[in-house]
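Sanity check

After download, print the first record. It should look like this:
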Amino acid sequence: MSFAKRMSQLGTENAFAVAARAAKHQADGHTVYPFHLGDLNFASPEHIKEATIKALHDNKTGYCPAAGILPLRAALAEEINLTRGTKYSPENILIQPGGKPVIGKFLLSFMNENDEVLFPNPGFPIYESQIEFLGGVAVPYSFKQTEQGYSIDLEKLEACITPRTRLIIINDFHNPTGSECTQEEREKLAHIILKHKLIALIDEAYFDIRYEGKSTSILSLPEMDKHCVMLYTFSKKFAMTGWRVGALVAPLKYMESMARLNVNMESCTSHFSQYGALAALTGDTKPTEDMLKTLKKRRDTAVSMLNTITGIHCPSPASAFYLFPEVTGLMQKKGFSKYDTFSEDLLIKTGISLCTRAHFGKILPHEQTGTDKNKFFVRLAYSGIDEENIVKALNILKSYAE
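Expected structure tokens:
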């Protein structure tokens, strides 16, 4: 037997491959400092677990509506409206087994074979994987460095649009760079969406992971709620990565058809876990507030230390829990011109396990100039490593660099 042709188009989330390599290194008796995976080393809050256990004892173990239980959909609509200035109702929401299924269902619903889909690169690798797996043409748009960090190159993005372009994926509060759009950039993106009659997936998985200021959404702009599908996840804000609960939020005219995807694919998100998600939205906010304070300390410590290391420059993003420092000088000093050999050397000699730019989409032509102007970047996730070990790891990195 041989696999269907589409299987050759299916990519992966490369951070898991890095995690497997780190686990082997640790199993061989070495210390590993895990900066690679965007998981959280915080326990899910007790009131969420207690609500889930109660739901189990109340026999919430059978099927429930494919769209999700009404109390959860109502609470989530209220939360999104409050934080994003929208006017969604429970009928605009489909509960999902995590955030990832929203990506595939968005593409299945709106992308025909050979349609072009704009997606961020560097970016979450599942975007490109799902576009190509489902028969679309993945068209990357890129970022440029700014004084604050990184921003979408909107001029190049619009230049990529052709008559075959149907969809765009926007990951505001961005993985891997931690960057976010300014209000002006959101307005320009909204203009592009309307001008070219695109349908947009707005991935705001890290909307609530915020240390300064206030998050705002492109969905609050006029007409955007009619042209956008939103990805919401409980994983990050509530330390529920393994629970696999998320939501798809979309205009009412799409909901009946998209709900049929739930029926066909998983029937429903697990019944009892939805009561845990409901408790997350309606219960004590202190665990989230405490987690954000801890994450902010980790960010500040890591950024401060990284910027003392020769050959590294690291912006300090106000959202998400990723750093995306430029390491061009360090790699050149150590004699590396390829990411894989550099990251392996780093793991062996320092125990630091991280992802590189190469783990977040194919390297773009303008990044392959073949000259000494090439720039190199890595991603450090500080969500799964405590401050004490951040300090230990980055002191070792400083010694490695010097």
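If your output differs, re-run the checksum step. Summary of this record's structure: The mean pLDDT is 92.
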